[in-house]
Amino acid sequence: MSLDKKTVARRYARALFELVDADNEVDQTYQELIALRQVFEDNEGLESALAGVQMSLDDKKALVSDLQQGASQYVKNLIQMLFDYGRMDCMVAIIDEFERRYDAKNKRIHADVVTAIQLDKQQRDQLSANLAKRFGANEVVLNESVDPEILGGVIVHADHKTLDGSLSSKIKQIRRLLVR
Amino acid sequence: MSIKTEEISSLIKKQLANYQNQVSVEETGTVTYVGDGVARADGLENAMAGELLEFSNGVYGMAQNLESNDVGIVILGDFSGIREGDTVKRTGRIMEVPVGDELLGRVVDPLGRPLDGLGEIKTTKTSPIERKAPGVMERKSVSVPLQTGIKVIDALVPIGRGQRELIIGDRKTGKTAIALDTIINQKDQNVICIYVAIGQKESTVKANVETLRRYGALDYTIVVSASASNPAPMLYIAPYTGAAMGEEFMFGGKDVLIVYDDLSKQADAYRELSLILRRPPGREAYPGDIFYTHSRLLERAARLSDDLGGGSMTALPIIQTQAGDVSAYIPTNVISITDGQIFLDSDEFYAGQRPAIDAGTSVSRVGGDAQVKAMKKVAGTLRLDIASYNELASFAQFGSDLDEATQAKLSRGQRTMEVLKQGLHEPQTVSQQVVTLYALSKGFIDKIPLDDVQRYESELAAYMHANHQDLYDSIQKSGKLPEGDGLHNAVADFTKSFQTSDDKKKATQK
Questions:
Q1: A161, B28: Cβ pair inside 8 Å?
Q2: Which ipTM score applies to this complex?
Q3: Domain check: are A34 and A54 in the same one?
Q4: What is the DSSP letter of B322?
Q5: Cβ of B27 and A7 within 8 Å?
Q6: What gap in Å lies between CA A169 and CA A116, rounded to an integer?
Q7: B467 pLDDT exceeds 50?
């Protein structure tokens, strides 16, 4: 049975992380990987092109060497290795998993915040401070989005937890109580 | 007294200060796969095995497979509204169902919700559906009989309270009828009955419920129904729900009878679930833990020690075989778990021998201790008699020149088989059974023509009821045969006055 993407990503990310951690190059590698992920996100189809069979091997090799430009040795090796083993389609998953490890090390959390209206600077700071306290984190990275459907309040997804303080789910709850 | 506004408003202020807008904090996951009653979800890293999970549309699920990357969930309800990407949240609770007296007389689904349209069930207690069975020190051996009201069972395969007796046979051989008759016979016996219908047609369940209602048995019965149209997870948990409801009464010191009709359907439902959850299939494609599924369920039937109130739960699981094959996987499993089996034979059923119990293969491993003394006395040699009759009968088919002793044996055997016939929903008291079998064992019936045996039996019961009620009462009370020759004389008197159909014909011709 072939391994699924998640298992593969976990193994590669762990190996890479432990390697760069030993050499104290975590921060630099992290920055490079984020940039790499940006490239993949900007160029839709890059991942599947590299993993697929539509392109000739030489074209792929050219693409890979383009990707490797300016990268440190470890990242270069990672790209080469994934290419050689035909795991190019796992690249983004590996970077995500690396980021998770990086967050755990630096006590940083990513929080998806959904609000009805755009947050202002003060609200943003307050929210970050509160979330940092609740999750025991040093740093909070907010990933904001606006959804007028929730009417008011805020919904935060972080660390597999959902903090739901939205007006719409309160109304839903009240409706359920009334129906019963 | 005047209203002190200031005092009141200060109180209200205090209350308001404490009132906070509560933010719900929940652990959530994301659905990555939905199909055929099963979902997989990412996240939910702390979910427990068997934990109840809630999908965003309000449907509940039960965590089954906890794997490194995701959680396999069985969906307890309508899964058509669940989409990939929906959130699932933990509830922190293990699957529970409502239990208590309020459920008596009701028809409920495996989650304890009413199905009979008689309104809400106002229970106050709940109980987890999976519970560890009572241990060695919490039990007591089986010693009190559970009368089924069916002669051949009470005589040959007696069932004790707290026993697990399997009812096994092909389709349409009267398995459910035996179970229902047993429930009907528990009237005024202070036994709570639970009938778990698994994977049956709604019309069949309805008919069974109506039968129970007609005989006044529904008042002390709970019907748990997961019909054929319910998704597999509901069929899978139905027997555990029934057991949880029964345990509540058992731990309250009461006697409970629970019927699982039938466990082969539950095994099929569990097989379906397991295959969709991608657990490896084993023999007949059943998963590896199919034995444990049944053993942990049936182990919950017990007779509790006096310290725990002395309650009991008797289980009558039902298994359907294909063409009488008891060596298939599920039948052998359940036969080895239970304390005996009642084997129903389709050939006998169609030959008119109903209930079609195969005396040779039906056994009760612990019920003998629970059988009343009087019954033991009159039915002691019954099994051997039937066995030797069957042997002789197949042999005698070839020739007609038989010596007198053989003929006598054959005629006794034929009458024995005739006596063991019993109509549907006509349970008999133990004293009536004892007197009938007494008449048989003492040779009173030998002279009665075969066609008149059943009439003889019912008229004997009426005669005893009218003239010798004291004998009935004494058997009922002491459990022993009455001392002296009162019983012998009573039966002899009746036999003398009994008119066979030939006698009657002669009388009318004159």
A1: yes
A2: 0.73
A3: yes
A4: S
A5: no
A6: 13
A7: yes
Q: Residue B15: inside a domain, yes or no?
A: no
Residue B484 covered by a domain: yes
Task: Give the gap in angstroms from C-alpha B182 to the nearest C-alpha of chain A.
Answer: 38
Q: What would the pLDDT profile of B46-88 be if each residue is shown by its tens digit?
A: 898 889 999 988 889 999 989 888 899 999 988 888 999 898 9
Q: Do A162 and B25 touch (CB under 8 A)?
A: yes
Q: Is B175 annotated as a binding residue?
A: yes
- B96 within 8 A of B126, measured Cβ to Cβ: yes
Same domain, A72 and A131: no
Who wins on pLDDT, B4 or B34?
B34
State how far residue A111 is from chain B, nearest Cα, in angstroms. Answer: 14
Q: Are B457 and B436 in contact (CB under 8 A)?
A: yes
Residues in A touching B58 (Cβ below 8 Å): 176
* Per-residue model confidence (pLDDT) at position A1: 40
| Predicted local distance difference test score (pLDDT) of residue B484 | 84
Whether residue B1 is predicted with pLDDT greater than 60 in this model: the reply is no
B150/B290 same-domain check: yes
The number of distinct structural domains making up chain A is 2
Same domain as B399, residue B366: no
Boundary of a domain, candidates A70, A103, A136: A103
Residue type, B384: L
pLDDT at res. B42: 87
Predicted confidence (pLDDT) at residue B399 exceeds the cutoff of 80: no
Please indicate if the annotation marks B161 as binding a ligand: no
Co-location of B358 and B389 in the same domain: no
Interface residues of A toward B, Cβ cutoff 8 Å, are 4, 6-7, 157, 160-165, 169, 176
CB–CB contact B69 A161 (8 Å): no
Phi-psi label, residue B199: left if phi above 0, alpha if psi -120 to 50, beta otherwise: left
Specify whether A81 is located in the same domain as A9: yes
When divided into structural domains, chain B yields a total of 3
Tally the C-alpha atoms within 13 A of residue B464's C-alpha that lie toward its C-beta: 29
- CATH number of the domain where residue A15 is located: 1.10.520.20
Residues of B in contact with A169 (CB under 8 A): 24
CB spacing of B28 vs A160 below 8 angstroms: yes
Identify the CA nearest to A106 among candidates A137, A128, A75, A79: A137
d(CA A31, CA A13) in angstroms, rounded, equals 15
Q: Is the CB of residue B392 less than 8 Å from the CB of residue B406?
A: yes
Reported pTM: 0.86
> For position A51, what pLDDT does the model report?
80
| Chain A nearest CA to B236, separation (Å) | 28
Is B174 annotated to bind ligand?
A: yes
Shortest CA distance from B47: residue in chain A: A160
CATH number at B435 reads 1.20.150.20
The pLDDT value recorded for residue B21 is: 63
Work out whether the CA dihedral B187, B189, B194, B199 comes out positive or negative.
negative
User: Looking at the partner chain, which of B23, B45, B68 has a beta carbon nearest the beta carbon of A164?
Assistant: B23
B28 to A169: CB separation less than 8 angstroms, yes or no: no
User: pLDDT grade, residue B20 (50/70/90)?
Assistant: low
Catalytic residues of B: 365
Q: Say yes or no to pLDDT of B369 above 90.
A: no
Indicate the average pLDDT of chain B: 91
